[in-house]
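FAQ: What does the model actually see?

It sees only this:
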Amino acid sequence: MHDLQGPYLLFLGHEDNPLAIKTSRGIAQWRPEICIGEHGNPLTLGLPKMRPEEAAQHGAKTFVLGLTNTTGDIPENWQQDILEAIDAGMDVANGLHQRLSDVEEIRKAAETKGTALHDIRHQFGSVPIGTGVARSGKRILTVGTDCSVGKMYTALAVEKDMTAGGFNVDFRATGQTGILIAGTGIPVDAVISDYIAGSVEHLCPAAAENHWDVIEGQGSLFNPAYAGVSLGLLHGAQADVLIMCHEAGRKEIKDKPGYPVPDLQDCIDTNLKMARLTNPRVRLGAISLNCRLVGPEKADTLCAELEERFAAPCFDPMIHGAAKFVDELACPAA
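And it is asked to produce this:
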């Protein structure tokens, strides 16, 4: 399991596309307390601008490549910044497809300095196969009608409101951005399929009866590319509660023309059926409705309609937060 040391210095690169720094933006939004500053130009998140040496002097432990690009590689014009961070004694965390350790100069510099290179998107040694053995503690898993509908954002919003409500709770990250936000986790899309369920059992082990894990979901059972990882998560999570994430107005599965978004009732029923293999008592806890396409002015009406239809709280985490679900979790209806 990846474990990152905070605080972070967020690297924003040297380009001007604001979409490229969405990972850094997510870290700064959800974990501002571990973000000492930012490095790079011209983009900014409003954090203090710092060179790696200065950030290290202020206590930064990890230089985070908090940005993406279309090729998934480490551009040459980033390498000097990475080497500067290593020379300052910082670890480096990378969510891109190319490994830091595959860049010879970076690998040698880290070996010389004794710093760690965290290639988040890649597998990290052996993980066990799933056992299906019942374990203590309580778990919430976000699932979806498709990928990119808000499963990570929903899980983080739930964890935030549960923490505010006094719950004993942890967010469990399963993707590279979530891992960088949480500082720990397992990139399940890098795990061999036979071991996905076991890796999630390892990520969310037995816990105290009043402890909750909020697990970041991936993919969808109805996405022909990513259904496998979704099923492994359902079995390994052994969830007590599922939150169904859906984007209002989406008609087809992302990047899969001819594959319609599933009927919401069918998707809920199928996810519950699959989850019952390892937890027969699993239930639908809420619906998280992403209203990006239809606009915030329709969010209240659509959520009210789904609440009546499914007898479960419905919220857009961007607009409403997750307090409605958390309040019902604390005081379930009779």
